[in-house]
Amino acid sequence: MTTTGPRRGFWCECWTQDLTEEERPALLASFDAYTAPEADRWVAVTLRTISPALDSDASDVAWAWLSQGRIATRQALLRSEPCTVTITQDQTRITWTIRPAIFLPLAHRQGAELPACAHDFKPHTPD
Question: Got the DSSP string for 35-49?
Fold first, then answer.
């Protein structure tokens, strides 16, 4: 049994990067949103949650996006354009990305009978 056909939505990610190190950004979280409001709400809730812990510069950037930038983000998402929101706290850059996506249906495993060989599988143990 599968879900309905492909569904439009947005793939949202939150990346962090330590600016004092020469390392690549690290994926902190991801989220699949099915509407533009749901996608920008994910960023908004996160920014509101962390804003009390931000320094004044990062807090100003966060609240500027919440009060003004969010409108532009929502409009861009409604045009199916990708969006990015970035703040820098001390030496850490936090970047949220939202990209249009098409989610493909997956087969449900609930109620499905696994093939007999699935029960023969034994996890490999290291020597």
Answer: SHHHHHHHHHHHHHH
